Amino acid sequence: MTKKKPKEKLSNKDLKELMGMNRPTYGRGSGGAIKQK
């Protein structure tokens, strides 16, 4: 999280690492917006 870049720029790997790779949140709820890309 160095620069303020749009969430859609983060890759699935980054999202998984940020969410803890164990949180279904990145897939549902707020993650929904990111999944839409």
Structure description:
There is one protein chain. With 37 residues, the protein is an all-alpha fold. It has one domain. 41% of the residues lie in helices and 0% in strands. The protein contains two helices and no strands. The model has no long low-confidence stretch (mean pLDDT 62).
Percent in helix: 40-55%
Largest sheet: none
How many β strands by DSSP?
0
Q: Outline, from the CA principal axes?
A: globular
Radius of gyration, in angstroms, nearest whole number: 9 Å
Please identify the structural class as seen in this structure.
Answer: mainly alpha
SS summary, helix count: 2
What is the first-to-last residue Cα distance?
18 Å
Strand content: under 5%
* Mean pLDDT over all positions: 62
As residue ranges, the low-confidence spans are: none
The SSE order reads: HH
Count structural domains.
Answer: 1
Give me a quick take on this structure.
By secondary structure, this protein is mainly alpha-helical.
Detail the topology: elements first, then pairings.
Blueprint: H1 12-19, H2 30-36
Biased composition (Basic and acidic residues): 8-17
Region (Disordered): 1-37
Biased composition (Gly residues): 28-37
What labels describe this entry?
mainly alpha, 0% strand, 41% helix, 37 residues
